[in-house]
Amino acid sequence: MDIPATRGIPTSVVEKTAIRKIAIRIVPFVALMFFINFLDRTAISFAAPNGMETDLGLTAAQFGFASGVFFIGYLVLEVPSNLALHKFGARVWLARIMITWGIVSLLFTWVQDYPQLVGLRFLLGVAEAGFFPGAILYLSTWVPARHRGKMLALFYLAQPLTSVIGSPLAGWLMTHEGLLGGLAGWRFMFLCVSIPAMIVGILCLVVLKDKPSQAKWLDEDEKLWLEGALASENEAKRGDAHGKGGLRAAFGSGRVWMLAAVYFGFIYGLYALSFFLPTIIDGFQEQFGTTFDLFQKGLITAIPYVPAAVVLYFWSRDAFRRGVKVWHIAVPALVGGLSIPVALYMNSPAATVAVIAVTACSIFAALPNFWTVPTQFLTGAAAAAGVALINTIGNLGGFAAPYITGAVSEWTGGYQVPMFIVGFFMVLSSVLMVVLARNTKRGETAAAEAALTAQETIA
Length: 459
Known about the structure:
Layout: H1 13-25, H2 27-47, H3 52-56, H4 60-76, H5 78-88, H6 90-107, H7 114-128, H8 131-140, H9 145-156, H10 158-174, H11 185-207, H12 220-238, H13 247-251, H14 254-282, H15 284-288, H16 294-302, H17 305-322, H18 327-339, H19 349-370, H20 380-394, H21 396-412, H22 416-458
Helix pairs in contact: 1-12, 2-8, 2-9, 2-10, 2-11, 2-14, 4-7, 4-21, 5-6, 5-20, 6-7, 6-8, 6-11, 8-20, 9-17, 9-19, 10-11, 10-16, 10-17, 14-16, 14-19, 14-20, 14-21, 14-22, 17-19, 18-19, 18-22, 21-22
InterPro entries: MFS, MFS_dom, MFS_trans_sf
Subcellular location: Cell membrane
Protein name: MFS transporter
C-alpha cells in the first residue's frame, strides 16, 4: 500500500515556502493541543499509584474501568462531533472541545469516591469527543497528500513528548502536598494540568484559521497553490468509488472497517502502556527491592518515550521519502506485539524499561503513518465520518485495554497475562494491515484490467 502522491514529483519554490509556513504556524499549535489532550486523559495513570487509589479505595479492576470508561463517552459523540466540525469549522469546534474538557478536568480536583470518578471520566470523554480525528481532518485540509505524512509525524511527536515532559511534571506537581488549601498531591496535579486546556482553547479562536485563504501569513501565490493542490486531490477522490456518497462511502467501505480493526490493536497497546506503566514502575519496589520518590518515578515513566519520539521522527521521515509502504505500519506493530509480554520477565528495572521502550518505539512508529491512509480515498463529509469511524472503533481499545488489563491482573495476581493479551492484539493489527494491502492491490489490479478490456472492446 503506497501513497503515490509523495514520490517523484518536483517541488516548486511556492510549494516549499507554503509547506514551511504551515509547519511553523499551524502544526506546532495543533501539536500543543494534542499534548494537553493526551496529558489530561492520562493524568489518572499518574494519580492512581500515588495516592488516588488509596484515598478513593480503588481496586485494580475499578481503576481500569474508570480509566477506560472515558472512551465510552468519547465514542458516543465521536462521529457527530466530527461532522459538527466539518459543518461549523475547525477553529470554533476545536476551541469548544478544549474549553469544555478543561472544565471537566478541573473537577477531578475534588472527586470524592469511585462513582464520582467514573462519572467524571465519562464526561471527560464526552467533552473530548472528536478532538483527535478533528485535528487529523483539520491538518488534511491544509496539507496536500504528498506532505501529509511529514506533517502528521510532527503532530504525533506531541504524544510521546507528553510522557517525556508530562510524567516528570506530574511527579513534581504531586510532591506539592498541601500547597493549596490542603489539597493532596494528586489533586493538586489535576488542578494544574486542567488550566492549560482552557487557555489554549481560547487561543485557538485567535491562532487557527479554517482554510488557507483566511491565513494572512500566506502570500497570494501560496494560497492559490494550496487551494489548487487540495481541490485537485479532492476532485480525484470524488472520482473514486470510495469517495462518493458522503456518509455512505465511509460506513460502507470495507477498507474503513479494516483500518478501524487495525487501529483497535494500536490503541489497545498504547493505552495499556499509558495507563499501567506508572503502576508497573510503582511495583518495582516489591519486585526488585528498589525505592523511588515521586519525581524519580515520573522520570522513569518518561524514559521509554524519549527513544519513541526519535524513532517516530526518523521512521516517518523514511516513509515520507519512500512513500508509505505496508511495512512502515505492519512491522512496528509486529515488533511491539512480540516485545511487550517480554518486559515483565526481565530481572531488573533497567531491563524492564528497556523492553518497554522497544514497545513504545513500535507503537509510535506505526501511528502517524497509519493516519496517512484514510484521507487518501475519502473526502468531504465521507472523510469526516470515515476518520471519526476509524477512531471510534479503534478507541474501543482505549476502553478495553485498561479494563481488561486491570481485571485480569487482579484475577491472575500479576501483569504477565494482560501483557500477552496486549501482544496478541498488536500482532493481529500487523496481520490485518498486510491483508488489507494485498486486497487493495488485487482490487486495483482487477480495476486496471477491466479498464484495459473495456478500451480494447471499444477499439
